[in-house]
């Protein structure tokens, strides 16, 4: 429904069309391309009678009000996965460590757990490792249980 309201203090008539307001689609797209939401752009165009320049300025001067309104109208979205990720139990199955006096000297070796025993892989040499230096690992690999 449209009403024309005349104000004694103003020299012009104000057209109230809040329920029937249709934003200019080109103006709406232009304001949204500036990074504003459709709701913000529509509200600003309504307040400024579809004037793009004034609408952008209106958004900046009413930003806190718009942010508050949007937070009230938008439903809370749970971004957490809706499935069970299982238990958080892991077993160390391998680690890589460095053998040498510094990172510039020496080389890397790999210890892998095979059939309940630790095996060291050192270039072409493979052997059982009775006391693997787990505390000296550079990279640790785990398997989920």
Automatic annotation (TrEMBL):
Residues covered by the UBA domain: 22-62
Domain called USP: residue spans: 1-145
A Gene Ontology biological process term: protein deubiquitination
One example GO MF annotation: cysteine-type deubiquitinase activity
InterPro entries according to UniProt: Papain-like_cys_pep_sf, UBA, USP, USP_CS
SMART domains in the cross-refs: UBA (SM00165)
PROSITE patterns noted in UniProt: UBA, USP_2, USP_3
Superkingdom of this protein's organism: Eukaryota
Any Pfam family matching the protein: UBA_7
Coiled-coil intervals: none
Record-given protein name: Ubiquitin carboxyl-terminal hydrolase 5
Protein's organism: Timema cristinae (Walking stick)
Lineage, top ranks: Eukaryota, Metazoa, Ecdysozoa, Arthropoda, Hexapoda
């Amino acid at each position: 429904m449209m009403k024309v309201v005349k104000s004694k203090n103003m020299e012009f008539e104000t057209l109230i069309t809040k329920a029937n307001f249709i934003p200019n689609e080109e103006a709406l797209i232009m304001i949204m391309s500036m990074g504003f939401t459709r709701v913000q752009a529509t509200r600003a165009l309504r307040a400024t009678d579809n004037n793009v320049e004034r609408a952008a300025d209106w958004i900046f001067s009413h930003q806190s009000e718009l942010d508050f309104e949007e937070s009230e109208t938008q439903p809370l979205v749970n971004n957490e996965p809706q499935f069970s990720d299982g238990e958080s139990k892991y077993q160390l199955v391998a680690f890589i460590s460095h053998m040498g006096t510094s990172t510039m000297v020496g080389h890397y070796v790999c210890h892998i757990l095979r059939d309940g025993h630790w095996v060291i892989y050192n270039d072409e040499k493979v052997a059982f490792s009775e006391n693997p230096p787990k505390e000296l690992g550079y990279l640790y690999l785990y398997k989920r249980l």
